[in-house]
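As a warm-up, study this chain.
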Amino acid sequence: SNTDDNPLLENINLNTNTNVYLSHVKLGPNNNLYLGAQSGKIYNVNNINSSPNATEITGNTMPLGNVSSIDFYGQGDTIAVTFSNYGIPSVWVTENSGSSWINSESNLPDMPIRWIVLHPNNPNHALIATELGVWETSTLLDDEVVWSQSSNGMPNVRVDMLQMRDSDNMVLAASH
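Now compare it with the structure written out below.
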């Protein structure tokens, strides 16, 4: 039987046709599962409760690298993806569910980006967790994206994760 000491384990074939390790998993709008891989590939998996069907939505100009986070605005048309490697553009955004992607790194230093959070009421507003603290923009979907450090008393330390509390949009940052 299924208990805390004896959980029911089940393998699910997501049909991604890749054997590269996944680096990020995010449940998105409409019960779709979004997967990021260590190779830079991004997949949208629908029908996760019955017969999962994976569609690769990686952009043609996206880099080879480790997908570190995925976030959404609305019903999943607007998706933001980050990479945690040096030497590559680390922030990418689509407004058409992954049909085309835009490099939104802009004026960020060359550093690993570990997490992105889009504001639930305005996708132009985003926060990212980086090797040098938290950065923010209010122009994510504009022609010119401008990033600035968002210290609010936090030092320039590695930040691994950001989470936004639904009840009041309070952002929590995980660091060392």
